[in-house]
Amino acid sequence: MLPSLTLVLGGAASGKSSFAEGLVRRASARRLYLATAEAYDDEMRGQIAKHRQARAADGWETIEAPMDVGPALAAAGADQAVLLDCATLWLSNHMLSGGDMVAAESAFLAALGACAAPVVVVSNEVGLSVVPDNALARRFQRAQGALNQQLAAQSGLVVFVAAGLPTTLKGTLP
After folding, report:
1. CA end-to-end span of the chain, whole Å?
2. How far is CA 129 from CA 54, 85, 125, 132, 159, in A?
3. What's the rounded Cα separation, in Å, for the pair 30 and 145?
4. What sign does the CA torsion over 171, 72, 110, 47 have?
5. Measured between alpha carbons, how far is residue 128 from residues 125, 131, 166 in Å?
């Protein structure tokens, strides 16, 4: 059994999404994939199309929610398991939109806490790299670190993935 909220952290291309998918796949036959990516170029459009096809072939219901994940989380049933991939792109989308980040994060965390289904959130750990050389990137790095800390505090299970290998930071793997 998954706890109500699980956080899977890792660097880019660390295997965190595949690990999180496995957790959700084992938790329920009814799986909901909340995708937060937006396609700003041809390469990203291709990646999104490839991911859509792979998820459909594997029995995932997919909802693309780059900004507002609340309605999808509210509609998820207790007999489902939800994968939100990823909090990093969700945060980027909000930061780039210029909206009220405090309100957005508060609504995001509340929606996760109120969801009837167990939710696995994928997020990048951006604090292991060098301090960025520009103000926007530094602001993003601080915001991502703060969001990850809030998610970790709210989660019953936190797993860090590096090179495809999971390390449990909090809780017990099912």
Report:
1. 6
2. 31, 21, 9, 8, 19
3. 31
4. positive
5. 7, 9, 17
Which residue in 66, 74, 146 sits closest to 112, CA to CA?
74
- CA dist 8 and 159 (Å) reads 5
User: What is the rounded CA–CA span in Å between residue 65 and residue 72?
Assistant: 8
Question: Does the pTM exceed 0.85?
Answer: yes
Q: Give catalytic residue positions.
A: 51
Token pair 């797993």 in the structure block, residue: 159
Q: How confident is the model at residue 121 (pLDDT cuts 50, 70, 90)?
A: very high
Number of neighbours of residue 56 by Cβ within 10 angstroms: 12
Q: What confidence tens digit (pLDDT) does each residue in 45-90 have?
A: 898 888 888 888 888 999 999 999 999 999 999 999 999 999 999 9
